[in-house]
Every structure is written in structure tokens, then in C-alpha cells.
Amino acid sequence: MDEQGTEFSAHDLWQIWQQTYLSPSTPLKYVSHELTDSGCASESDTSDSQQLTVTMEVNQHAVTLAGCGNGPIDALLNALDLDIQVHGYEERSLSYGSDAQALTIVELTSVNGSLHGAGIHDNIVTSSLLAIASAINRGIPTTDDSLMLQRFKHSAV
Prior knowledge:
Layout: H1 10-21, E1 28-36, E2 50-58, E3 61-69, H2 72-80, E4 85-93, E5 102-110, E6 113-121, H3 124-139, H4 145-155
Antiparallel strand pairs: 1-2, 2-3, 4-5, 5-6
């Protein structure tokens, strides 16, 4: 389109955005999760914490990880045990009504710089977890895939 001297339509831009932020599903692909409000806090910890058990595919191998945190995103990052932090988080509804899909956009920071990802799902927690996986996938070189699988197999539940 750009070579033709025409402008991109809204549909074209949406397709490009989806391919860039929603399509990367390797090496880390979200499968399912379970989130509970108990099971994490130690006797000395009075904070409200949540436990997340998440199943991911890493290079097409199912791995189940568990982590605790002050919410599902913190719990996921603790389960993944990667040196990344949330720098920015936004969530929007894609339409009106209680059945609207959620769009989550995240910016993570790592030693390699900023990682950006997005997720869309009917469930806002799942949308957030998909966004984290998207950001990680967009920031991890494909040569690190086998190292990630090996690391997660050792820390699996």
C-alpha cells in the first residue's frame, strides 16, 4: 500500500496491529490459568495476595507454573521468574456492555529495554496474561527458546 502511494485504511491498520501484537505465540503460549485468593500469605504477611497457577506451552511443551503476588500480573511474573517489571499497563473495552472484550496493553522493562505486548479476551485477567505473554514473545530472541523451555521445566509445579 505504501509503495502504491495510497493511505492505509482503518481495517489495514487494525490487521497490522493484530499481526504485530496479538499473533506472536512462540515461544510462550498461554493455555489456561486458575487464580485463588488464598494459599500464598505467610503468617507474617498480612497483605492480600493471590496465587496463580498457569499452564503455558513453551515450544509446544505444556508447562504448569505457580506464583503468588498482589494480583494476577504480579503472580504471573513471579511464576515466570524472569527479570522483568511492569512499566505500563492499560486496559480498554472494545465495545459496550458487560459482554465486551477487554484489550490489555502492557509495557515491560528488562535488561534488554522495553517490551510491549497486548491481549484481547472476554475475561480481563486472561487478557492481561495474554498481554504479558505477547510482550515476552516479542522481546525474546528465537535462539533463547530452548533455554526458556529448560528453565521452566525445572521450575514447573
